[in-house]
Amino acid sequence: MLARIGWITRLGGPIRGLGPYAAIELLVPGGSLIVLSLLAFRHRAWLIAQLRRRLATFAALIPHAPSSATSR
User: Fold this and answer.
1) pTM here?
2) What distance, in Å, lies between the first and last C-alpha atoms of the chain?
3) How far apart are CA 46 and CA 9, in angstroms?
4) Which of 11, 31, 49, 52 could cross-link 25 (Cys pair, CB 3.0–4.6 Å)?
5) How confident is the model at residue 12 (pLDDT cuts 50, 70, 90)?
6) Does the pLDDT of residue 36 top 70, yes or no?
7) In angstroms, rounded to a whole number, what is the distance separating the alpha carbons of residues 2 and 64?
8) How far is it, in rounded angstroms, from Cα 60 to Cα 48?
9) CA geometry: angle at 39 spanning 45 and 19, to 5°?
10) Within-domain flag for 25
11) Structural domain total, the chain
12) Average per-residue pLDDT for the chain
């Protein structure tokens, strides 16, 4: 019984943090877009780091063709 209470307590904190976002999403027209923008703003440092990594990976995978302007 105590083990069940332990995992419920550990799970309760993050779920309580999502409460205001869920209320906005359900009550406001276009709430999903508003919530996504709020979450992106709240975690913008992490999001920017992830986007930079993805962009660097994508740029490394693109084959670079020689430019025709420099070969004339």
Assistant:
1) 0.48
2) 79
3) 27
4) 31
5) low
6) yes
7) 60
8) 18
9) 140
10) yes
11) 1
12) 79
